Amino acid sequence: MKTSSIISLLLRLFRKPSALQSFRKFVQQYPVEELVSKATKGRQAIFPLSELDEFGKAILGAPIYLEAPLRYDTLEKILIVPPLYTPLRLKKMEDLMREPLFTDVETTCTIGGFSSSLPVAVASMGSTPVYNKISLAVSKASAKIGIPIGIGENVATVWGYSKRVKPSQPCFKERIMAYLDNLRDGFGGVFIQQSVEDAYDELWNRVYSDPDITPYIYEGKVAFEVKLGQGAKPGLGGETFVERETALRLSEKYSFDADPKTTNKQMYERHSAPGTYTPEILRSMIRLLHNNYPRAKIWIKFGPYRDLADVAALCDEEKVDAFWVDGKEGGTGLSPVTALKDLGLPLLAVLGKISRLKQRVDMDFICSGRIIDGGDAVKVLCFGAFAGIGRPVVVAAYANGGDGVEKYFEALKTEIQLLTSAVGKYRLQDLGLEDVAAVDRQLALDLGIRSVYD
Description:
Elements: H1 3-12, H2 17-29, H3 32-41, E1 78-80, H4 87-96, E2 109-111, E3 114-116, E4 120-122, H5 129-132, H6 135-145, E5 149-151, H7 155-159, H8 172-180, E6 190-193, H9 196-200, H10 203-209, H11 214-218, E7 222-227, E8 239-243, H12 244-250, E9 255-256, E10 267-271, H13 279-292, E11 297-302, H14 308-317, E12 322-326, H15 337-342, H16 347-357, E13 364-368, H17 374-382, E14 386-389, H18 391-422, E15 436-438, H19 441-447, E16 450-451
Parallel strand pairs: 4-14, 5-6, 6-7, 7-11, 11-12, 12-13, 13-14, 15-16
Antiparallel strand pairs: 1-15, 2-3, 8-10, 9-10
């Protein structure tokens, strides 16, 4: 029975107008629909799925599926605040011998050892069919633009390393070569995640010794990204739903809610391990990567954990090239609804920690978590991090293929230039906390920035 039908039935049980009014108020304030879903679907109800939004056919992640108001502050609580007096604009005018325009803002930079045409990187989206299907278009477009891109966990294990296991889904090597073969001269780089399950097939070893990829490794265009967590589900492993054929093929490497060899269901829950870490384990892992893959750069993918400062300090000591942090708004292929609501630090909290860390840590930071336009990117830059982009490129690719991705980044660049110029600056590294203000005084105090009311 549908939730609406159940609620209608319950409403008819109340005959008195006063009782009916009380029940309507109860329905509005109490998560009846969530409870009905759990009562009818069981454990499947803990994932953000519906009849219209099947996993693999929709873009899921926080906070899209949260109908209740957010209980934490987002980038919308921060404004970019330009001054009238702009001495750096005067300096730029003297250099150019004319009044500077927003197009004079230089957007090229270095991110994690890679030259980039924009202060952004494309997130390491993984093996979900909804992204993998258009991943080649995103790879080619990102290469032409000249920005770093990630290839996420489980791609090689699920879709094959150099040969497709399903005609409609690109394999791992197609994704990486679509990027590397289209690289813009002097720009870009690819960073590759390896999950616990990928490690069974020695993914990084295969990549590092692959004759087609080796030349790019020697050029410094390849990094290995250690995944320590993910925005919408820090502390949890990878979750997805797969058909029986795929479940049978992967049954020896992943955990499933039911054994596909002895049961016959339409879809199976596939779970992967989150990995276990202590400071000693992480330090040893980074040193092993430096030793085994000396020509590869080392990136870290970090979830919105409370011990961000301690982990970042360790990574800086071990000469990690880039430290990517998701806020809890960071999208994911699939995450329990309760995790979307209650697990992890929001992006603003992450940015506050990073702005303090930048005073003693020299490592590059990238932050993601519902960063959509140039305004979001500039705010992140002001806190001392680069912007990580995920879902926007998926939407752009589905809307207009690779050309859509290129046009999206063209618009993003223009927005970044406009807003950076507005505060009287023409180099991204000149952006700082003085260029942003919070609409809430307590938030301003917490983040170490000014209030718009001061």
